């Protein structure tokens, strides 16, 4: 039997900043909570198919930590899902993506950073839940200093393959 293996580059939310986010995920989306910690996806699997080049870029990366500012919660996927969208100005996020994907994708597609609170594949955000979520004080900005290469086998729990720490002196 052939395993289906997925890989992504992810920015995990630091435990010190994740309490509220993880509480909501555990309470309202326990299946997704079990699969992966709160995160912002940096590069999706289709973008890192030339993994050797991407890893070389990560190893040579000189970049300060990034800060992403977030807007209030929003629904998506016909209201079933719930996420924290980033505010529009994310130059450092997009610059980081360009550096990581240099070579395989010199002009990567625009990707809106966000944190999924309720994934529509395994939860449903009702009107009542959405009203509750609007009253919760989520972090308005989060700091990221590590990129994680993660892997999922056959739909199971995402595991960290490697971590690449930003150069704080960059």
UniProtKB/TrEMBL annotation:
One of its GO terms (molecular function) is ligase activity. Keywords: Ligase. InterPro entries: 2H_phosphoesterase_YjcG-like, Cyclic_Pdiesterase. Gene3D superfamilies: Cyclic phosphodiesterase (3.90.1140.10). Pfam families: 2_5_RNA_ligase2 (PF13563). This is 2'-5' RNA ligase family protein. It comes from Limnovirga soli.
């Amino acid at each position: 039997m052939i395993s289906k293996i997925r890989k992504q580059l992810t920015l995990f939310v630091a435990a010190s900043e994740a309490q509220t986010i993880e509480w909501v995920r555990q309470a309202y989306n326990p299946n997704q909570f079990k699969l992966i910690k709160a995160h912002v996806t940096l590069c999706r699997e289709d973008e890192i198919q030339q993994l050797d080049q991407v890893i070389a870029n990560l190893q040579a990366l000189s970049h300060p930590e990034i800060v992403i500012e977030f807007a209030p919660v929003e629904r998506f996927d016909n209201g079933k899902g719930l996420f924290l969208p980033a505010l529009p100005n994310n130059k450092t996020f997009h610059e980081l993506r360009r550096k990581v994907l240099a070579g395989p994708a010199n002009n990567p597609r625009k990707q809106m950073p966000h944190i999924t609170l309720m994934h529509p594949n395994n939860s449903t955000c009702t009107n009542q839940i959405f009203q509750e979520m609007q009253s919760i004080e989520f972090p308005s900005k989060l700091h990221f200093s590590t990129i994680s290469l993660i892997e999922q086998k056959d739909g199971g729990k995402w595991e960290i393959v490697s971590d690449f720490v930003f150069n704080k002196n960059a």
